[in-house]
Queue: 4 jobs
Job 1
Amino acid sequence: MRFIVADWGTTRFRGYLIENETVLDQVSSNEGVSALQKGQHRDVFLRQCGRWLEAEPKAPVLLVGMVGSREGWVEAPYASCPAGPAEIAGALVPVDLENGRQGHIIPGLFCEPAPGAADVMRGEETLVLGTGVEDGLICSAGTHPKWILMRGGRIERFATYMTGEMYALLREHSMIGRPASEPQDPKGFDLGLDAAERNQGDNGVGLLHLLFSARASVVSRRMDSGLLAPYLSGLLTGDEINGALSQFGRPSSVTILAEPGRADLYVHALERHGIKSEVKVPQEALIAGLARIVRQHAVG
Amino acid sequence: MRFIVADWGTTRFRGYLIENETVLDQVSSNEGVSALQKGQHRDVFLRQCGRWLEAEPKAPVLLVGMVGSREGWVEAPYASCPAGPAEIAGALVPVDLENGRQGHIIPGLFCEPAPGAADVMRGEETLVLGTGVEDGLICSAGTHPKWILMRGGRIERFATYMTGEMYALLREHSMIGRPASEPQDPKGFDLGLDAAERNQGDNGVGLLHLLFSARASVVSRRMDSGLLAPYLSGLLTGDEINGALSQFGRPSSVTILAEPGRADLYVHALERHGIKSEVKVPQEALIAGLARIVRQHAVG
């Protein structure tokens, strides 16, 4: 079965023509959702993918990511957890393409991690369905890493951390990261993981203190400035993992969805907790998840 | 006794002519340490305070704040905790003014909150000595709030939190704060304090998750956007207080050094822990602390 996909995020547009789980053709541009006004999305899609629409007049069309947000093409309301392929395929939101043909936006997911609290995702639900994990814990480690608990093939609940964005804030805009120097000494990552242990359990000293303390170690000449950037990365990653494990328990293994460099950091940090990791490539999981939703949609 | 003071921080220069604890005259400018190059500090000081030097040829001259940092006039090495008036007055660092006259930079303090960890202050040590608190816990609540434990009239140890800077980062540079709208609804502060409770103890979910969740509550329309900014303030302040109380124990009362608006937030947050507060004005504490160091220096 052939189908057409737009993986349409905040900063990038990526189009794929797919047969089963093989990419036959692809396009990409910087026409992300944040670069567009209401009313422009259809034209962008037709310009980028119109030739596939003509060549494959029966192919289903799926759109995934921030294209379904309030700032996107059409707002696709969040589906609620628990949600699996059936719930997600049942909540697809149609958009008009041309000549009466429709595409379908994959809804994001909402969950209530505590009474009155909220968490959301858009796009990761599709990657997660493509991992093949039916029961277990998945970490999708992008700018806003998400820890996702699978039960019986459905997304039971999840928690998002702003780890990657926080690292960028500290490096680019904060006096905490200002003393950091190049070349970086990667040993800082483990020192940051050590520091994160001081924020565990009943005697937790607070992440906001540990961040200030990192800077203080450099300005008081207790830590070399080349260690600071990896130290901040380790501290934030360690605090994220501590929080995720206390929310979701301590499994014997975790599935990590991340590019190799970032995945290695999580594998290493989880090893310190005695937890094994299986790393999966996000792009492959995305295609597999899309194929699963297309099949479900065709069946449903 | 008359003395001359420069309270010289990162962004402001403030000069005072003081008799005992009364300010007789004052000047201020935006010639903070970050606006100056090495070698400019003496000229700025003489231009701002030179007439007092002439009028009071015997008056001691004290300089306090970031003027003693690596980027300041002369680096005044950090004194180590525990430190009281005697230790601080004994570690003053002289600078040449004119005609053989000297001023003295008050050193900052260093402490080791855990083996290998570090924390530093420059300026708050002087405020703290001006509170008159001999035994107890003080919170100096500026951009980087510091919690300071006093024992027998000396600063025993302290911990700094980047709370205020973090709030500014989230509001100005992060997608977490972007959905916040005006007018602000101050009820959000208490909701943020509630959320901070979810990061206490063995089941702490992690501050980086709670921050993302605040945004998710707004984009999923579970929370009004006018609540978000006070919510973030409450979450950060609550997490700071939780960390500080777990580091320093839970006293029956805390002395707060802060301007009225900010002090009110701390008083309220501490009340929820059953802790009373006594609020002191930072400016008055600074003058009292300087007078104490001058007297000690004259004696020593």
Job 2
Amino acid sequence: MQAVDGVNHAGESQKSDASSENLFPRPPHCGILPPMETELSKKLGVEHAIFGFTPFPAVAAAITRAGGFGVLGAVRYTAPDELARDLDWMTKHTGGKPYGLDVVMPAKKVEGVTEADVEAMIPDGHRTYVEETLAKHGVPELAQGEASGWRITGWMEEVARNQLDVAFDYPIKLLANALGSPPADVITRAHDHGVLVAALAGSARHARHHAEAGIDVVVAQGYEAGGHTGEIASMVLVPEVVDAVHPLPVLAAGGIGSGEQVAAGLALGAQGAWLGSIWLTTEEADLHSRALTAKLLAAGSGDTVRSRALTGKPARQLRTEWTDAWDDPSGPGTLPMPLQGLLVAEAVSRIQKYEVAPLLGTPVGQIVGRMTSERSVQAIFDDLTRGFERAVERLGRIAGRSDRS
Amino acid sequence: MQAVDGVNHAGESQKSDASSENLFPRPPHCGILPPMETELSKKLGVEHAIFGFTPFPAVAAAITRAGGFGVLGAVRYTAPDELARDLDWMTKHTGGKPYGLDVVMPAKKVEGVTEADVEAMIPDGHRTYVEETLAKHGVPELAQGEASGWRITGWMEEVARNQLDVAFDYPIKLLANALGSPPADVITRAHDHGVLVAALAGSARHARHHAEAGIDVVVAQGYEAGGHTGEIASMVLVPEVVDAVHPLPVLAAGGIGSGEQVAAGLALGAQGAWLGSIWLTTEEADLHSRALTAKLLAAGSGDTVRSRALTGKPARQLRTEWTDAWDDPSGPGTLPMPLQGLLVAEAVSRIQKYEVAPLLGTPVGQIVGRMTSERSVQAIFDDLTRGFERAVERLGRIAGRSDRS
């Protein structure tokens, strides 16, 4: 099985799980903990209302196996056959339990524009700034003929549509879209396949647009989240979105990495928690860079920044000398999406390949401060369900309710 | 009773409450709701672990009467006798129930520096920019000899110490400090009077400093809060601070204005919730400006900004053309605390007096989006306790616990 950058495959990390019979060494939670059950979790047939977003099939499958809902991020897949291969693997390694797919499909469609057209829109001055910044840190070039492994082209509608052509052949239960509502025909197609459609929202206004577009689930993603975020923090955003789209179910995203935080998200009215960052340093994840894993494990909650450096839209990520260079008022500044992503794609590949520490970063939320050791998905999941239980018990005591006996 | 700017007095708003016998028209919650009880709430002798910070004695007293813990902000009191008069009033109107005081005492002491010395440090260019910005909006001057009503001098240690000389004569149960830990002798003095000391923290590091300084309670104030804030959102900050200062009690602040949000804060490990913004539009509050109240009621969660415009340190407030002027890269920028506060004091008075809408603002958190009507403190308090109950019930159901019957 050929490795794809940023994706960890069965053959590499799941060697002991060669047959699906061996996938479930013990029933999750051994029956000790009750499920975390909401209307949405029941609808999706999932034991715990914990949704895990990850670019790694091995992580997504492990989340689903643990009793959560694994959501595979598709943005890094350029070739449809690579996505097909990984969805094959996911399906084999989730034993019939539900999982989903996350695509990045822009709400605004630009007709007939190719990647080459978009590349041509990038000013020379910005290309020079990329090279100067890399040169300042002595970042080597890629080898002659070596392709840039790191590309985010999945947000171009053409690419996302190719992904969907593949995805609907697999038993996905949820299709999430990271940028705006998906086009109407995609929503219809998903519904025809019995697939729920989710969309991320950073404000109540966005969430209302999604609801009007006919989506089924809103992921309210707060300021503290990794990746693309708005400025409203989860504590305020989640109940605003819950109110705005009632009775649609809402997932709380942003700042969640413990069971207590899951409980907080649910207390705010969400029907589940959506966690992304926390899986980046799991044993099943494969960032292809020990230096990056080490940076994530060392980073505190104050070591991220909301920057346009990576995609052209504000996305929370590790603060690095790379983000500083793009956020520097004396630099050329960033380009709009999708130009910025194309502009920096090869540079990011070079930084990652040669592990140039001061420039090395990744999208991650403020919860990075809690990511201090590499652990299995199952261990983190057990912490989440136990922490949730503890929080609910404690709240019950504070409210003067008798403990369950 | 002479009115002090920004402070609402008994004689103005509590006319029907002339005698303390009439202050408790009905027992709070009529015995329907159980208390919201934590170790800290028991220690302070308060029914519900809801702490309300406010510059208005009438609001603080109403919070305490409702079964919460009212904390009066002292920063606007320049004259000790004004503070004494309002603490007299508070004591009479809380019927023996506990309340606290919030001062702003900088951690760093500057020996022998007077207000005049500090005034002299302000560059002329900044004074010119103030006048130009006011002129652009046609803001009239104050009348001849009219004093600037809006001054924030309480953060000068001398002023804060005068406040403390007054405060310890009253039965305050908690002394909170908004900027760093109070000096060691103040902590000792508070403890000698049986007064707990709280300090606000925007990061786990700040919180650890407070704990080492010997304070008793940490208020973990998230990014979404009104007033001085850091960059870490409550969802991430609260559990970090809880872990950092264990076993000291932590209050969750920032983004809290509903009972569901109180539940979320407590789920994160806090022993209570600390609410400030939500009281600004209560019937008992007196902003001395209908235009400002109207702006607050109309503002959404996205209409605030974390700006240095008011004090020189980042403080969340309504975004206005005044904050825009100071955050404008082509302007002179802000001065460090306490210079900025002194620089803008008279200007803010003029803007407030003449209610110049585009410039009119106030510190407030992202929860401002939930402040859509003027209500009594008791009505808000009832919402908080009922919403908390609802959230705890719902979490119990999600966790598979049977409802209280």
Job 3
Amino acid sequence: MDRLISRRDLEFLLYEVLDVEALTQRERYRDHSRETFKDTLDVAYRIAVEHFATHNKKNDQEEPWFDGERVHTNPEVKAALEAYRQAGLFAATHDYALGGIQLPYVIATACGALFKAANIATASFALLTAGNANVLRKYGSPAQQKKYLLPQLEGRFFGTMCLSEPHAGSSLTDLLTRAEPQADGTYRLNGSKMWISGGDHEIAENIVHLVLAKIPGGPPGVKGISLFIVPKYLVHDDGRLGPRNGVRVAGLNHKMGYRGIPNCLLSLEDAVGELVGAPHQGLSYMFTMMNEARIGVGMGAMALAYTGYLHALEYAQTRTQGRRMHDKNPASPAVPIIQHPDVRRMLIMQKAYAEGCLHLCLYAARLVDEERTAPTPEAAEQARLLLEVLTPVVKGWSSELGIRANELAIQVHGGYGYTRDYNVEQFYRDNRLNAIHEGTNGIQALDLLARKVGMQEGLGFRLWAQEVERTIQASRDTHALRPYAEALEQALKTTAQVTQQLLNKAAQGEVERAFANSFAYLELFGTVTLAWLWLEQARKALGKEGAFYRGKLEAARYFFLYELDKVPLLAERLMRLDDVFLYPEQDWLTTD
Amino acid sequence: MDRLISRRDLEFLLYEVLDVEALTQRERYRDHSRETFKDTLDVAYRIAVEHFATHNKKNDQEEPWFDGERVHTNPEVKAALEAYRQAGLFAATHDYALGGIQLPYVIATACGALFKAANIATASFALLTAGNANVLRKYGSPAQQKKYLLPQLEGRFFGTMCLSEPHAGSSLTDLLTRAEPQADGTYRLNGSKMWISGGDHEIAENIVHLVLAKIPGGPPGVKGISLFIVPKYLVHDDGRLGPRNGVRVAGLNHKMGYRGIPNCLLSLEDAVGELVGAPHQGLSYMFTMMNEARIGVGMGAMALAYTGYLHALEYAQTRTQGRRMHDKNPASPAVPIIQHPDVRRMLIMQKAYAEGCLHLCLYAARLVDEERTAPTPEAAEQARLLLEVLTPVVKGWSSELGIRANELAIQVHGGYGYTRDYNVEQFYRDNRLNAIHEGTNGIQALDLLARKVGMQEGLGFRLWAQEVERTIQASRDTHALRPYAEALEQALKTTAQVTQQLLNKAAQGEVERAFANSFAYLELFGTVTLAWLWLEQARKALGKEGAFYRGKLEAARYFFLYELDKVPLLAERLMRLDDVFLYPEQDWLTTD
């Protein structure tokens, strides 16, 4: 068993729930059909199984190393990405004119989930390159696109994003990297960039770094940040590679997991950079990439949760241990552990988290397609805004639930799960990064509460609430779903009240107190969002025959009984507006 | 900074809260005083810092290995245990007649916490030996004690416990290891033993394995299990070592963490064993060791949580990043991250978990002293029973909260916490074992609900409730504590009702349904227990001057506002007695 992500479930979500087939009515996707989607997923699945999963453990055990000159990775990484390249996946979502096949983003996302479930580190080279390419597609000049975008879409160049510095992770205001303009129109960059995944390697012909830096004399803070292309090797206008640029590896970070992709401290020493777009607009350009990267992180967390769940499920179905509680006869045979209620609890939780987050990630990806191809500008703008609201949830809540799921996958395996002979301990270690990178979950929670739900006078929140409400209305007249619809309605009302109260408090100037509990808000919003999606799944499963659909209904039942029930508690914590987490005048956090 | 466990906090808990000094009134401890306790803790602290903490990272990076003949460990492990031995710590709690100093168990436990915080793997050699020695002290014959107990108390021999087999972890009923009686009164053992920590090494002169096996012809199931001493080297009656016994290493388990102590699959091949006590009583003897080991596991989880918290606290006090929310000036200096509410939340949670569990573990350890030295047999029996009830909570709930705490310690560090340059990622990996070994937390939850709280017609539960009630009564007339006392009173009532309803349901024969949610019961019971202990700490801190005491009051406030508030929710889940986790006639957990 491959145990990556259930193809059956992918098809259920794509076609029965999200009606992705409808996209083929849009001009951009008119050459596509359910068959082309299936073919693409088949190819992705095969490459994921044959080329990615096969070296996932080796990537963990033999991590990249730096010899002072070059960064070495396992040869299987390059081979896997070559298979990925040959399948045309680097360019898949792009225009025909750029060599792409105009594949819907939601299908590409489903493919990405398979690669991440198989080998999240190797998949990350490709996903970072895709994010980089999207920035250049949107904001690069024609000359820059020719030099740096096309080779990425061909899979010859890879991309990175260089935001953080050793002293500045969450706080981009404090970036110190400087970009001095030169007479020839280029810039010279100096500074240090930290946490650069794929920051150096020998896999691609070249590496295109997208670097945030400040042009001296610009405005202070984030308003003075500009975006630059800094290639590892300079590129002549005709595409030939020139000399090595002043980007050096100062060291590799040695991580707990996610080890197959080198993570670098890069030193920029008079590195030649090309300005992307206008000066001082770098942060807004980079948000294009960050938003996409954040969806990618949520998907990665979900993919690891999903594959961990399938590993745990198979183990629980085959490992025998003990007897049912009512069976006191020591001579009766041991039963598969899936029959023990506590093991079953741990499996159902994983199912609810993994399949719920897969739905969430695909829903978000479909919004990207909607934004791109909606029939009216208003509909496109609505999709964009809803995606803005959901991005911190996709990133933050999938990664919180993902780590819970992987923790349970280990627990189902008992002592075996704690050993490197099995796969689940690596998933757990790999997944622990997803709550941290691309903005910690604390940052995501603040982004959601302090920026997103209040955007455009609450329009973002209202769009989300409308979607939840639509599912409630579609369910309330069905006898089996009415209790869920009513519970969700109540939860939605509560969430709206909480949101209003917190935003009012902030508007009155008590910003820290209003937002001190933002993590609980993420928990509330994430839980209601997943309950909504589970009700959608239940709605589409109801009345259909077979264990698969029954499983969907039971997972929804679990979610409403054991997750959505937290809403009043979370709301109470938020509405209280206490000062437990506020920094006091005289701190008492001491150990002496 | 050593950042192990706060000495100030240890002293607060030992003397101000638990009044451990009162033990010096007991005959057994009359030579002791607060000064001898302090001296012992000073010695332990010094050895922990100088000999244990110093190789904790090396133990993780260079794990034990097996050359086909011998198991190799880092030389620092042996050196650390030699320092431990020379300080007399192996025998400390034992009688003068056995070479001990009759140190109270609670003080020895506090010392143990320091060693575990410094280096949980190296400390485990000593703790396993202590547990083994206690079984022999209670159940070994005088000859066995001379041959196997005394050398362990001298630190010359180390001990193990051999319960699990590859096919039988949680289910000891199914053990297959056989012990054939011989004409000379010894037995020959054959079988495989799995997950044996310290199962082989060259650190001690000899290893004393305590092995569960079945004597052919005995009763089926756990009633046919006997306990045997199986030394690595046979021991002559005069104490000289004889030839190597038939215990061989079949392989080492390679774990995610906790790597410094080898974990072995042992093969018994006509191994010579001596029966301990009577035949077929092995499990009850082994429970002596298991109970102690379970308290040790809880303590280990707490120790890792505590040291992780101190690491995160120091990091948060020194790392600067960003500005307060009301400060929009990018030119103002960055603040230490402890000032950001979400970071502060993560620190307060760690403090509440680590210091709360330290209290719980020391409370349990003090019950061991109480059982041993109480003025009346009734009081001793009460202490024993209360300890029985608390053991699964100490093990299960400390390890659940411990892993949460370490997860947060990483999160406070951001990306740095995910690298091996810092210590917290190792604590997290090490701590993940504690929810699994010595009975998974699922087993602990079942033990608590299905066995312990109903013991002796609910006497165990009532003893626990009496203790909680005592704290409530002592607090309710104090203005500042009254709201806590009332909340705890309500939570206690709820817990009693839930317990009664579940035990009634089980008595009516619906055992699986009654106990299906036992993990939620552990969560409920653990949360109320910690709230009780936090109220105790608050009671003893109230009215005293200084940040340390203020911190105790604030942590209690956090616990009552953000943890005890879960009680109604958990109670509702339990009272509902739904069938969500029961194995259905036709399973629907499928991915196809």
Job 4
Amino acid sequence: MERDPGVAVLRLGHRPGRDNRMTTHVGLTARALGADRAILAGRASAPKETIEDITDRFGGPFEVELTDEPGRVLREWSGPVVHLTMYGLPIQDVEDSIRADHGPEPVLAVVGAGKVPFDVYELADYNVGVTNQPHSEVAGLAVFLDRFFEGAELDREWTDATHRVVPKATGKQVEPIEDD
Amino acid sequence: MERDPGVAVLRLGHRPGRDNRMTTHVGLTARALGADRAILAGRASAPKETIEDITDRFGGPFEVELTDEPGRVLREWSGPVVHLTMYGLPIQDVEDSIRADHGPEPVLAVVGAGKVPFDVYELADYNVGVTNQPHSEVAGLAVFLDRFFEGAELDREWTDATHRVVPKATGKQVEPIEDD
């Protein structure tokens, strides 16, 4: 979202094939709920392509990149690093601190697939639990973003879309957007 | 969650194998974020088993059931039916109405996998979009539940758990719960 502070989402531990759908959902959730950018660790070219296709159709700005060095991304990130984990501190207790703590640098929200290496817990400025129950990295990311942006992400305007959904009480309406 | 109004989650369109992980995430998200019950349409015994294993370990109450007649569940539901769909009305515009509208009957939150039959749109009392962007039924459900319960679900107490996570700023701590 083009407002301060921006959020990038780092997806760790992607396993090609097996995790394609979950990683795609992580990236699409990041895009839909106000993040600017998804960084996918590992051979995640299939999810990257799907997320870019959606951005081409429904708008951006939203960037997707792959990395073979997620540890370096974590270590070199200049803004706050927020690792979403069921073992972390309750989001309702730390969300205000996270918002207050950031300067002009974007937040990096980190979500794993399966077991996350221990150094991620140590490199994170905040280990945050959206509940301390096992559920879904997609759900944790969604609640984190909605709370971080305090709902403002739902009013985001999209640019360079070719199509848009017209909200309806019943049924489906998608309309093309004509370039001026 | 043991407070009014309860929420049940109906998962439509499960394809065995292919959707196991997504359906499991839907069910675990429902449990973690305050719903009482998940109803899984189709041959979803593998997700059912995983969700029940988590409930046995980390607590309930939470029920999981399978149905071959999701249309009947929808038609016979006595409380409000909320279908989460990218084509629906913005959640920020309708969440207050949904809360105000329910009586003592639980809400049924409906999420699809892939294409949802058109009669679901017609049977729903509310078609609700968590954004009008394509992303994830897990993310949509998570944001819906967090908003519906206004965050109270994060303070839920769990019963009959054998283990609990102790929230930590860094690292992981899971402790057994001893029965008295």
